[in-house]
Design brief:
It contains five helices and three strands; from the N terminus they run H-H-H-H-E-E-E-H. By secondary structure, it is mainly α. It has one domain (about 5-90, about 130-150). A three-stranded antiparallel β-sheet has the order 1-2-3. A hairpin with a 6-residue loop joins strand 2 and strand 3. The longest helix has 21 residues, at about 130-150.
């Protein structure tokens, strides 16, 4: 399977499933796993140091997506070099900023949907998973699109 095939047949449909049901932990974890594994397909096709490249292009977003992928697959991820030590089940759903469900200090004004967040490892700050996935995909396309994904 080429990187383009993987993107079209596996990654994009998995990401779309999560976008349509962004409260689903399972769909979020799977989206992160398949997003990270695009690097394997790119390297097999000839790209070099894909994860290093992605880490340098979009450090915060890559760390979130990679941490969820590793944490969802491995019970003990302490040997993982990622600075975020995510473990499956430690994510939280931030409630939307709507009457009846809004939580002061937690919901974000103007956000009608909410989202899955994980601790970013920095001063107990939270990082949202879906925008991180979008950022990583965008950078994959910029960096590798012409040669491997178009």
């Amino acid at each position: 399977m080429t990187p383009r095939d993987y993107l079209k047949e596996i990654l994009l449909p998995t990401l779309e499933d999560y976008e349509e049901d962004f409260r689903s932990r399972r769909k979020g974890y799977l989206a992160c796993i398949v997003m990270c594994h695009l690097s394997d397909y790119l390297e097999k096709a000839g790209a070099s140091k894909v994860q290093d490249t992605m880490r340098s292009l979009c450090t915060a977003a890559w760390n979130v997506v990679h941490a969820v992928a590793i944490g969802a697959k491995h019970m003990d991820n302490l040997k993982n070099p990622n600075p975020i030590k995510f473990t499956a089940g430690s994510d939280v759903f931030r409630p939307p900023a709507r009457a009846g469900v809004m939580v002061c200090g937690w919901s974000r004004l103007g956000d009608a949907d909410g989202g899955m967040e994980i601790y970013s490892g920095e001063d107990n700050l939270m990082a949202e998973v879906l925008p991180s996935l979008h950022t990583v995909l965008h950078q994959y396309r910029i960096q590798f699109g012409d040669a491997y994904l178009s």
